[in-house]
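FAQ: What does the model actually see?

It sees only this:
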Amino acid sequence: MPVSSRAGQRSRVIVGSVAVALATICLVAGRANGLQGYYGTKIADLTELHHGVSGSVYAVDARTLFLKNFNYDGEGPAAYFYVGNTRAPSNKGAHRLRDERGRTGVLRKYRNEDITLSLPEGKTLRDIRWFSVWCDDFSVNFGDVQIRNELDFPRPTKIAGLSGVHDVASDNIVIVDAQTLLIPNFSYDGEAPDAKFWVGRGPTPTSQGIRIPDENGKETPLRRYDKKTIVLTLPGDLTVFDIGHFGVWCEAFTVDFGHVRIPDQINVPPSLKMLGISPQRSRVYSDQQTNYQNW
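And it is asked to produce this:
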């Protein structure tokens, strides 16, 4: 390659990198939703009946509840988290939940804590009518929320697949949660000099978008892919609520290799990061990372 061509390409890469950095700052600064404040669909605030029980309950997905600013004084003799399908909380036909650490013991004291709970295996929010902090010894409800039948809980959303130049293709993409994309059977010939996974505002890619790390967390030019299923995570505080498209973009030559639209209104689960959860210790993580093929 002539020296002038190499210099021109380097110049384009430098200019492109600066543009991407500025676009990232603007995109994050202008977020309408972002990481803070989105925990899924709010069900209700807990009724404050006994032992200082209070907090807000959210549906993260079909099998997961998130308790925001949960309080309980820990003084009940045998209090547990329960769900059931009777008209009101009771010990008839109810199911005891493990706590946020997966333990089955009596509840400890909580003070303005954010915790995540999983429903029993085989149960979803369609199967239950209430959630309660319940005392087994005295059959007393310390606080509860009612779960309405028409609750529209978040769920992974399937959108179109990629199709474009340089053999870019995939099956329908799944938006797993607000920061996670599943790309089934992704292909790309690897022949372009500077292809990256790319997102941005608006329906189509531009040089004002930002690059997304690959499935290994790297931002280097994409290698060749042959029908490989990959999972991508949006960086930092960026969420799918902030972007209008996802695709493969040649950063050096500002060429769109193929993209898909991100719907304006989607009801997907919050990411584990948004819930303040470490995947390494989360039971929710395994729930969200299984059965992709069913989405």
